[in-house]
Write a structure and sequence with these properties.
By secondary structure, this protein is an alpha+beta fold. The chain contains 8 helices and 12 strands. The strands form 3 sheets. The protein has a 5-stranded antiparallel sheet with strand order 10-1-2-12-11.
């Protein structure tokens, strides 16, 4: 067990504040201590644990949800690659070039576009991206054209981003209505197959801009009372509250 080496502590409860006064109580069954040094043998134990897909997926989903719900995103986007313009199977090059293109785009248009991207593979191995954007003005977007573009995109109110299209490929951009719903929706893209593929490529499960807002940690301590979690796995128990006082009643 990892806690024998004091690298991990057990049963630490943390309360975090999210958008709209929502509070998340997280019971960490094993929580790594900051600043604790380990030798090579103990590092092997840590590495073996880190490779467990369930743990990686849980961490990625939690961070994606946190970044998604804590920031003032404007758009939900689907970004694809046109095989005539780009290598659809090279994720590392795509991410590198896309993020550099966005930096250049910000300078060119005097913008501060920020992003949260989750890569996903088609069945043939080609990559596309689902994600969130903020800071992209609507004046740089355009309506899809009936007869030229899919009618379902027009009916759903999606917009085209011609600058992205010219560089990379097809894209659809939709205005966000419900932050909580879209935040939960994004986490569903992080699957076991995706985690396995990304691990083999040494790629991340998500990519995001620097400086995004995070949930505010309010308090941490030991659990005072057992709770019925909204979600549980081998590493955490999670319960949501609309009241800080109610969340605090479970820890001491």
């Amino acid at each position: 067990m990892f806690y024998r080496y004091s690298l991990y502590v057990q049963d630490i409860a943390i309360i975090k504040k999210f958008r709209n006064d929502k509070y998340k109580l997280i019971l960490h069954k094993y929580l790594r201590q900051k600043g604790f040094e380990v030798d090579s043998d103990k590092q092997k134990i840590k590495n073996a644990n880190d490779e467990k897909l369930d743990c990686n997926i849980a961490r990625a989903r939690a961070k994606i949800f946190e970044y998604a719900i804590c920031n003032d995103w404007d758009w939900f986007v689907n970004l694809t690659l046109d095989a005539r313009k780009y290598d659809r199977f090279n994720l590392k090059r795509y991410i590198k070039d896309l993020t550099q293109w966005l930096r250049n785009y910000n300078k060119k248009h005097d913008l501060k576009i920020k992003y949260l991207f989750i890569p996903e593979q088609h069945k043939d191995g080609a990559w596309h991206i689902h994600g969130l954007l903020m800071g992209l003005p609507e004046r740089l977007l355009s309506k899809f054209i009936p007869g030229k573009h899919p009618q379902k995109l027009i009916d759903a109110g999606y917009l085209n981003w011609l600058d992205y299209y010219k560089k990379f490929g097809y894209v659809s951009v939709g205005r966000i209505g419900n932050f909580e719903a879209v935040s939960k929706y994004l986490t569903k893209y992080v699957s076991k197959d995706m985690a396995s593929n990304n691990r083999e490529l040494k790629a991340h499960l998500y990519y995001c801009s620097n400086g995004l807002k995070k949930a505010e940690e309010i308090e941490r301590g030991a659990m005072y009372a057992d709770m019925t979690p909204d979600y549980e796995n081998d590493y955490v128990k999670i319960k949501w509250f609309s009241s800080l006082e109610e969340a605090k009643s479970y820890i001491r």
